[in-house]
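Check out one such.
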Amino acid sequence: MTELSTSGSPRPDAPAATSAALPTSAALPVSAAGLLAADAESLWHPYSSLSEPSPMRLVRGASGVRLSLDDGDGGTVKAIDAMASWWCMIHGYRNPVLDAALKEQVDDFSHVMFGGLTHEPAIRLASRLIEITPSSLQHVFFCDSGSVSVEVAIKLALQYQVARGRHGRTRMLTVRGGYHGDTFAPMSVCDPVNGMHSLFTGALKEQVFGPQPPSGFDRPDDDPEFLAWAAAMRQVAAQYKDQVAAIIVEPILQGAGGMYPYSPACLRLLRELADEHGFLLILDEIATGFGRTGTLFASSHADIEPDILCIGKALTGGYLSMAATLCTTDVARVVSDGPGGALMHGPTFMANPLACAVALASIDLLLASDWSARIAQISAGLSAGLTPAASLPGVKDVRVLGAVGVVQLAGPVDMKGMTDAVLRRGVWVRPFRDLVYTMPPYICTDEEIALICSAIVEAIAEGN
């Protein structure tokens, strides 16, 4: 690499670089087949094997709610992204408001360290988040990703208990069926048996697990299954009260653990247990925040407030990786006044100005719309469109909560076969385990929601 002087010119003593010594992306083929071959040779995709790689589709462009996929013959096919790019692209692709926010911030500066420095986009975003999240949350720590925000939340809980003199409280209490991320602390609070991280058993911190909440958003708090679950959770909390620092759960909807909805009464019970035993309550709203379940944050369904809140995914409208961990003043002060005198975490790209600017624009864009009515309309469309799947052979359950629609099969889904079948009908999905599901962008029209549903139902019927 040619060395530069501080003026930007090559240093006179720098060795000359030869083109042969410099590998360049210009040498890569431009055909779809060539690029996909290079991908298979070099790239490791999420949850994939290099020995038996999953088939890839080359994205040539994206606009609105549609992806433009290379068809292999020099053209493209368009497909509705029913996944909102893993649940984050709530405003769709190439949104002019979000594009403008990024471009404007680039003209000022793209990044500065957040140690000893601050900037307007971060200050404005923090203020906006404090304004729209539960009122007790008054302090914001910006993170690189959702998984890191859970790491930070767990650190906060552990430091909090140490500062309170409760040195034995080093474990988290959670429930079966949850998913909180792929780094080590979040992996430890994911379901240890049916989750994605059982290979790491023995290497992860052993946390405390209660039973999975009984299914059903509308299940009342006097239901026998709820009462049995509540009794079991009370017993677990009492048994481990001197070991537990915090309770951590995904409120109302367990996401990657199975797209599993449960009653707000369960959240109220967990808040009660936290208060009774001196635990903190951490709510992981990375998937459920910003309107996905029908309220701006899922905790509102239960009318409770957490001590610590994790948000991400839709925070930036899908444009950049960013998350945040919010906490109460009590948590912030106790940790700040405790051993170390600080929260012991500091990402390099914390509060990246580009991410802050686009996140602020995304939140303002969402709140300026009648988002609540739109989510209700999407929910109604998903219910109407997916309900016919319930009568198909091999279908175990159909469920809808807010802008989340799920068809659960009686056995494992053929991911490749199902993806291909839905894509032939103009829709992109990414099934997993026994689930074919959609979490569409909020800007989908009623007609596009209907197309998503018909593509899923027809593909399932075809597979049978």
Q: What stands out?
A: DSSP finds 13 helices and 16 strands in the chain. The first strand starts at residue 59 and ends at 63. Residues 1-23 have pLDDT under 50 and may be disordered. Residues 146-163 form the longest helix (18 residues).
